Amino acid sequence: MKQTWEDLGTEYESSSSVLIADADCTQEQELCQEHGVKGYPTIKYYPAGEGREGKPYQGGRDKDSLKKFVQDTLEVKCDVNSKEGCTDKEIKFIDSMKEKASADRQAQITRLDKMKGDKMKPELKAWVMQRLSILRSLEA
């Protein structure tokens, strides 16, 4: 299960809407207790906009099952051209970046690429990844 989870995390590491994470409950006992983890491995998911209460994942534990669940349930795609599937925050960012020169967008990509490996709150990391996805789509 550990390798499957790591592989899935690697696959989604540049996602703007999906964060695959884990916690070692022998080290992070308070965090695990706060999230109701009682057995190992426990898989929970946290849909955007539905608060901090995680939902238990009940599907298959092989990579294909996990990936299908992420694609069907969690992955949000923002289309920079039609703005379909985009949040108000993303639309505002798209509009501001469309006005900029390609060199300016490339500079933002470089800056955000450096930031994405830094330690930060999950919400900030998600916003960094969303901006990278938008900028790369604008440059495509």
UniProtKB/TrEMBL annotation:
Cellular component aspect of the GO annotation: endoplasmic reticulum
Top-level lineage group: Eukaryota
The keyword Iron belongs to this UniProt entry's keyword annotation: no
Record-annotated Thioredoxin domain positions: 2-71
One Pfam family hit: Thioredoxin
SUPFAM superfamilies for the chain: Thioredoxin-like
GO biological process terms, semicolon-separated: protein folding
Alphabetical list of InterPro entries matching this protein: PDI, Thioredoxin-like_sf, Thioredoxin_domain
Gene Ontology terms, MF aspect: protein disulfide isomerase activity
Keywords (A to Z) from UniProt: Signal
Family of the protein in this entry: Belongs to the protein disulfide isomerase family.
The protein's name in its UniProt record: Thioredoxin domain-containing protein
Taxonomic source organism: Hemiselmis tepida
